[in-house]
Amino acid sequence: MQAFLKNLFEGQQYDPGNFFLLAGPCVVESEDLVMTVADTVRSICKNLGIPYVFKSSYRKANRSSAGSFTGIGDVAALELLKKVHDTYQLPTVSDIHAHEEAAIAAQYIDMLQIPAFLSRQTDLLEAAAKTGKIVNIKKGQFLSGPAMQFAVDKVKQAGNDKVLLTDRGNTFGYQDLVVDFRNIPWMQEHGAPVIMDCTHSLQQPNQTSGVTGGNPSLIGTIAKAAIATGADGLFIETHPNPAVAKSDGANMLKLDYLEPLLEQLVKIRKAILPVG
Fold it and tell me: Over the stretch 222-246, which tens digit does the pLDDT of each residue have?
């Protein structure tokens, strides 16, 4: 594990050979939701020795329909993310969407995430880099793993070498995504830890209803394949009741299903670790 990640997880008890996890509800809906999910996942990860980052978007800027829920207000949501950090001693991550958001969000959270559709936005990457925070760049659905070298370079040339890359599948036709697992080792060649987004990679976008669909029954399949391929971390959006979630309910994992899945993934990780 790279030094900046060891610093991020300082204070957490974990197996140093384990993968790390970014997990939480898609968007900050309420204080009760984020605190419940954070506490539950923290406990699961502590028992399994998994380093954990709480994830939730303070605002959803990329929605299919103009009428879709976008958030409870930027400051209110960011303050709840800070409360998660302070209450449970957990690092937090959330998306930013424009360069002027970077410095604001950095006051509240530990890691800035660049959405996949914005992974080529130079001013956004540079602004995130200049905060000094860890920058997690999601690979565009339209990009290959090797092409992400340029995004990594933009952050590093702005003076920040704390970079993560996340795969979330590639566009396949108009309403589906596929995962090319070659992208995991290809992106690791850029010198950045690589995460597999196991929920957004199962989205079914561009539905005529204006609501993105998904295949949550295959979350375990994507996660197991990613760990077997050597992913450094996993990204899993989870919610106590995805059916009533205000964003991405169609592809989030039900919170009750997270622990048994992680138990399986830890076993796979241990099975593929090099001997000695």
Answer: 999 999 999 999 999 999 999 999 9
